[in-house]
Design a protein that fits this description.
By secondary structure, the protein is mainly beta. It has 2 helices and 13 strands; from the N terminus they run E-H-E-E-E-E-E-E-E-E-E-E-E-H-E. The N and C termini lie far apart (about 45 Å).
């Protein structure tokens, strides 16, 4: 929104509430928002990053024109049900809070494209998220999530999915149906094997599987024809599939911290003459 005034004080903003399009209250040690925040009926962009906010008022849902909200690094442990009424919201950053659950009606945010809730306390991906079929980026690193539900198939527009540093042990069959996925981050989990469906992610350009418990890779891995960056470091691999050389677009691969023999390392280096390999 070039040329739009950015308000940095609630008091100043309340002096002309209808003029407020962008409100930046980041890094101000704010503990709570006033109920009269609802007066900013034309507000489109709100930055509340790095404060001490524990909850949002119910009136938050009356900010009907909100498109972009950043509430990262606060102390939120729940969201008001009214947040589901922000039907123009496209970007929501909830990183670094204390969230355990989301409201059941959270899935009504049908226009959400970017959703981030890294560093919270969730043990599962809330079912309501699978109603957000416009989502392109979903990041939930550093939680305690134990599985990716089969319903992930409903998020067909996802181009980025990151679930690093959780408690995952496997992937669902349906993950192969995410045909638009370009970046997949699954590092620092407890994944022991990959299903053949991983090879169906034909648009994938970056895959991070470092620090898992993988001892082998499926032959279908070679079908990832657009893969450019691959992180397999710190697993239990002793070899790569024979057809791995089919990954002709691979620019970088990290294989450090595995159990490859000298012979296997030589074979891999011969296959990827133009690829940067980190041992």
């Amino acid at each position: 929104m070039p040329g739009t005034k950015i308000y940095t004080s609630i008091d100043d903003a309340l002096s002309s509430p209808l003029d407020v399009i962008m409100l930046d209250l980041s890094y101000m040690d704010i503990e709570e928002l006033p109920e009269d925040i609802k007066e900013f009926s034309n507000l489109k962009k709100l930055n509340l990053q790095d404060n001490e906010i524990e909850y949002l008022p119910e009136s938050f849902g009356e900010l009907k024109k909100l498109e972009w909200v950043d509430i990262q690094n606060n102390y939120l442990n729940y969201l008001p049900k009214s947040v589901s009424e922000l039907n123009k919201l496209e970007y929501l950053n909830l990183n670094d809070n204390d969230l355990v659950v989301f409201p059941e009606n959270f899935g009504q945010l049908k226009n959400l494209v970017w959703l981030y809730f890294n560093n919270n306390n969730l043990i599962s991906i809330p079912d309501c998220i699978f109603d957000m079929n416009k989502l392109q980026s979903l990041c939930a690193d550093n939680n305690m999530i134990t599985e990716i539900p089969e319903q992930i198939i409903s998020l067909m527009n996802l181009s980025q999915l990151s679930l690093a540093n959780n408690e995952l042990t496997s992937l669902p069959d349906s993950i192969g149906k995410l045909k638009n996925l370009k970046s997949l981050g699954l590092h620092k989990n407890k994944i022991t094997f990959l299903l053949d469906c991983i090879g169906e992610l034909k648009k994938l350009s970056k895959l991070d599987l470092h620090s898992n418990n993988l001892s082998s890779l499926p032959e279908s891995f070679s079908n990832l024809e657009n893969l450019e960056y691959l992180f397999l470091n710190d697993n239990n691999l002793t070899e790569l599939p024979e057809n791995f050389g089919a990954l002709i677009k691979l620019v970088y691969i990290n294989l450090s911290g595995n159990n490859f023999s000298i012979e296997e390392k030589n074979r891999i280096q011969h296959i990827f003459l133009d690829t940067e390999i980190e041992w």
